[in-house]
Write a structure and sequence with these properties.
With about 190 residues, the protein is an alpha/beta fold. The protein has six helices and seven strands; from the N terminus they run E-H-E-H-E-H-E-H-E-H-E-E-H. It has a seven-stranded mixed β-sheet with strand order 3-2-1-4-5-6-7, sandwiched between helices. Helix 1 (about 15-25) runs parallel beside helix 2 (about 45-50) and helix 1 packs across helix 6 (about 165-190). Bound molecules: glycinamide ribonucleotide.
Length: about 190
């Protein structure tokens, strides 16, 4: 069974979806750690409820990204973490983590990449007036929401959609697609290894 760490900065609905999939036996993984860069993030409450160990840090109290990422690497290695799952972690991953977890960091993004990378992808798509948007799951490299794509799912934006209904549709896809894609990837890896 793969050991994962989830990184999140916000509400943590994707964290929750992953936990729930594990509980019902749809995802064969164990969440060893939640890494969070915001002390006020709601995901911390969720992790406490799930009794998931937490490493919460304040980036401002470090001299550099390399310094806090080195500490994260120590925490991950202490727990023999195999994969890092980014779930709304709103920070670029630096070389320290990328080198240590090369090809083992996965991200979810609420648009059809390469369209609308960065913050507020749902709002960006809505304001651009595109008729189709979606969700992308990809391996992480040094760029912002770049890296090899693992899975994508498209959805139509209807005339009647508001930014709120669009966000609901996107999140519904995310909560199903992320655990499903991680499970498929882990299964594929276990066949290869
Ligand atoms: C999700 O929609 C995720 O795709 C997005 O942040 C949200 C986190 O929601 N990630 C990005 O925009 C990454 N660039 P959550 O905290 O409820 O899981």
């Amino acid at each position: 069974m793969k050991k994962i760490a989830i990184f999140a900065s916000g509400s943590g609905s994707n964290f929750q979806a992953i936990m729930d999939s594990i509980k019902i036996g749809n995802l064969d993984a164990s969440v060893e750690l939640l890494v969070c860069d915001r002390q006020d993030a709601y995901v911390l409450e969720r992790a406490n409820r799930e009794q998931t160990p937490i490493f919460c840090f304040n980036p401002k109290s470090y001299e550099s990204k390399a310094e806090f990422e080195s500490e994260i690497v120590l925490e991950l290695n202490k727990r023999n973490v195999d994969y890092i799952i980014l779930a709304g972690y709103m920070r670029l991953i630096g070389p320290t983590l990328l080198n240590e977890f090369s090809n083992r960091i996965i991200n979810i993004h609420p648009s059809l990449l390469p369209s609308f990378p960065g913050k507020d992808a749902i709002g960006q798509a809505f304001r651009a007036g595109v008729k189709v948007t979606g969700v992308t799951i990809h391996f992480v490299d040094e760029g912002m929401d770049t890296g090899p794509i693992i899975a994508q799912e498209a959805l139509n934006i209807d005339e009647s959609d508001t930014e709120i209904t669009l966000a609901e549709k996107v999140h519904e896809i995310e909560h199903r697609l992320y655990p499903e894609t991680i499970q498929a990837l882990f299964q594929k890896l276990s066949v290869i290894n």
